[in-house]
Specification:
The longest helix has 27 residues. The protein has one domain. It is mainly alpha-helical.
């Protein structure tokens, strides 16, 4: 790798390469515990080449790819999350849900996903499923706002912070495998979360695309909170408007039986750490502009 390409790697590139190298090493060392490891390995090598190639394109040597070279991590998040379904038991063969179940019950005196079902109704179900689906659009939307405003340095910090938040989640998924209340507490649920089109759509996605594992920390919460923390840093008014939505997403993860309350708390903490890492790393490259309040 030439010095020119190394210099072209931004913080998001380096974080992405670090995560790919981590997972590639995991697959190589623990391949006996990973289904389709022989398929995942060449994909990972191709991803490494892609990240380096996009960094090279960012130098202006390959026209037309500069835009993609800044945005590609938002697409990789989806692949990396789906991959967890294959790698979640690379190290530990079982699940650690009982730790979180006991912690939730000790803190609240009940199982939050079971307790909250008493408030279930058609419109609340629809709202909760709608906001649950919206979390990924927050990343795209806020990133697009910074990009459209020409605030490239803030955009870079935001993407780096988001990368750090998600990649931290993915690493913990493997080190601390959790199923989710959907699998462990379903026998205690007495109310079906019936609703309309949004509920039907999310049920369809969960039926055919649910990842078994990858619940702690909640990546829904981590991703949403990374947006919120970044909004308060770079566009305070937008942060005010996003707060009710992000808080609703936090509640929806428990209401929809996707996460324990502990997953939510861990997701907030992960986002805080991820944003700190993103700002800290980007600041070492170039100063982050003062916080605007517009």
């Amino acid at each position: 790798m030439s010095f020119e390409i190394i210099k072209a790697l931004n913080i998001a590139d380096k974080l992405t390469l670090a995560y790919i190298i981590f997972t590639t090493t995991l697959i190589l060392v623990c391949r006996q515990n990973i289904n389709h490891w022989e398929v995942l390995l060449p994909i990972h090598f191709a991803l490494i080449a892609m990240v380096i190639g996009l960094a090279y394109a960012r130098t202006g040597k390959i026209k037309g790819l500069s835009f993609i070279s800044h945005w590609y991590p938002t697409l990789l998040f989806l692949f990396f999350f789906e991959e967890i379904g294959l790698t979640v038991h690379a190290i530990f063969p079982g699940w650690f849900d009982q730790v979180l179940i006991k912690a939730d019950h000790a803190l609240f005196g009940a199982h939050p996903t079971v307790w909250i079902e008493q408030f279930s109704n058609y419109w609340l179900n629809e709202y909760m499923q709608l906001v649950y689906m919206s979390y990924f659009l927050l990343t795209i939307g806020f990133g697009a706002y910074l990009w459209a405003k020409g605030r490239r340095s803030e955009f870079s910090v935001f993407i780096a912070s988001t990368c750090a938040s998600y990649y931290l989640c993915y690493v913990v998924f493997v080190l601390f495998p959790i199923e989710s209340p959907h699998h462990t507490l379903g026998h205690l649920q007495q109310v079906e979360l019936a609703g309309g089109p949004f509920t039907a759509f999310i049920n369809l996605i969960e039926k055919h695309g649910r990842v078994h594992g990858g619940a702690f920390p909640s990546s829904h919460v981590a991703g949403s909170m990374a947006v919120l923390f970044s909004a308060y840093r770079f566009a305070r008014r937008i942060g005010y408007w996003l707060t009710p939505l992000v808080l609703s997403i936090c509640v929806a993860t428990v209401y929809g039986r996707y996460h324990y309350a502990m997953d939510v708390f861990a997701g907030v903490l992960t986002a805080a750490i991820g944003c700190w890492i993103g700002v800290r790393l980007c600041t070492t490259v170039s100063p982050v502009p003062p916080i605007p309040y517009g």
